[in-house]
Amino acid sequence: MNKKSNNLKPSDFNTQRKPTWCLGCGNFGIWNSIKKAFVNLGLKNHQILIVYGIGCSGNTTNFIKTYAFHALHGRALPIATGAKLANHKLNIIVMAGDGDGVGIGGNHFIHSCRRNIDITYIMHDNKTYGLTTGQTSPTSDKGYKTKSTPLGVIEEPINPVSLALSSNATFVARGFSGDVKYLTNIFESAIKHKGFSFVDVLQPCVTFNKKNTYDWYRERIYKLESDKEHKKEDLISAFKKSKEDMGGKIPIGVFFQQEKPSYGDGLKQIERKPLVDHVINDIDINNLLTSYF
Amino acid sequence: MGKKVALIGTAAMATAMRQINPDVVSAFPITPQTAIVQDFASYVHNGMVDTEFITVESEHSAMSACVGAASAGARVMTATSSAGLALMWEILSIASGLRLPVVMTNVNRALSAPINIHCDHSDSMGARDAGWIQFYSENSQEGYDNLIKSIRIAEDENVRLPAMVMIDGFITGHSTEILEILEDSQVKGFLKENKAPYSVLDIENPSTFGPLQLTDYYFETKKQEADAMVASMDTIKAVCKEYRELSGREQPLVDTYMIDDAEMAIMVLSSTAGTTRSVVRELRKDGIKAGLIKPRLFRPFPKEEIIESTKNLKALAVLDRSDSFSGQGGPLYSEVRSALYDLDTKPVITNYVYGLGGRDTTIDQIKKAFNDLSSVAKTGKAENLVNYLGVRE
Prior knowledge:
Shape of chain A: globular
Order of helices and strands of chain B: EHEHEHEHEHEHEEHHEEHEEHEHEHE
Distance between the termini of chain B: 51 Å
Helix content of chain A: 25-40%
CATH superfamily of the largest domain in chain B: Thiamin diphosphate (ThDP)-binding fold, Pyr/PP domains
Mean pLDDT of chain B: 97
Structural class of chain A: alpha/beta
CATH class of chain A: Alpha Beta
Distance between the termini of chain A: 51 Å
CATH topology of the largest domain in chain B: Rossmann fold
Oligomer: heterodimer
Strand content of chain A: 15-25%
Mean pLDDT of chain A: 94
């Protein structure tokens, strides 16, 4: 993957459809960053499959020109897993929200982490259910008032970064959709990583989440590189950093990265070539069967 | 008497829930149902109900929480649509198998794939064999009424089965209609105490819910469930009669329009009955003997009423807003054909699958079906039994 070897521009990943998100939606930052990342990595449209969940993030299906699969709510990761095993040459990215990832599909998230399947999960984390017009999500701050929780959320939020770390993900990062340049870098590193890479993207929902706004984030976020003591190879340090958001400051950047065999490594069936490239028309199984007759 | 209000369909269902005042509601947002539980959350917030409201992480969890609460003897309600109902599927048969009277609204929406948010009945028809009583509602009024009746029916000691009430997504769910609602006190007076025969919280009489039954007892348990569904018909009729006296609304299990001297009729569930009724009215002006049959109840299947309503017909078209992909037409068609099979004289019965994914079903389409039917009535033969109405080919 040579840098910019594809001679493409970010706009070459546009479709004929213009995004339908609200003006100022955090999705625009993610949309711009991922297209830039594809260009910087030299990826062509046909080399990428994006699997989407349900939500405003899922609507991206119509706005990025790659192979695409619009899955059911919560089920993007298993579909991406199946696709990766069928054709491991594809660069597979999952785009789904916080509800998708740590709510209805939470089980798939922790198992994808521990499985270390070589896909990239970009979580559009706006701490709310935007598409259904603003209900509480699993990452909503405690006390957050929504139409479904007029008295305020009484549960503790899930911290997706901590969860990914404790579930043995091998690349764990957090980005901010208001910083496209930095987010692009994180996406590039995540896609290049061999194994399960997770990026929790803090993303304002300008229509329904009046608490976690661009200003609210800008007052709190800082880049992990500014803390010289943090090493991304150090899981304990990563975990400590992931818990910092409780204290008011929110670190962004790569928390943790580790090289490990990914799911599928060592599978004889896909050692030489992807499953889809195997020719299965002329296989004679008579010899095998005769041993049982 | 009640009062007339203008509400969207989801608000009508939420209003019924407020008046029912269940002990526990657990739900998860999904279009086009979301507005129901959102309204209900505000009732909880404003202290208008005594309900424990649980927001969960999926419909699977919502129905599971309902089952847990109902096992403790609570009056339990929820609401969902489409993929939400599909995700509940595993738990639907647990609610019915444990004979727990959970009552829910399903705002009908097409199942994926492709993803679609509009109305058809593939979601609830996919759950037709889950052991739940099923009501279909033409409009908000019927949805509201069916929901209140369902509580009484489901909780009756001779029934103890869960019930779901369908309204058409967007068409009914998001449209403002005038309906007459009962006084809160009337609903309160209509409902009886929910006397659960067993409760996981009854420490004097400890009980276990859902333990293993293999070849020894499972079959008997399921037969009891089947018997309860058959026997529920008496309770359903009694409750509907009592509700009629309370509300003044005549709502037979199988409604008919202009059927007495009709030679041909269309049978259809839910909102499309309204379109069909206006077509029948128009055809009657031209002297065409057309009629409408609208079942309100689908589970248990009102066989006797269906036979009675079709007895004078020469031709009947059954409209299905879902396909069973069997090659033999939709689910309502199969049920009706089966119900009439043993009769010596019966109409020729054809099927039209219509309105999938919210495709608008127009007056012209219904007229076309009647037009086909009139030649079936004349010749006694149908060219095609299974047809698709309003699809581009």
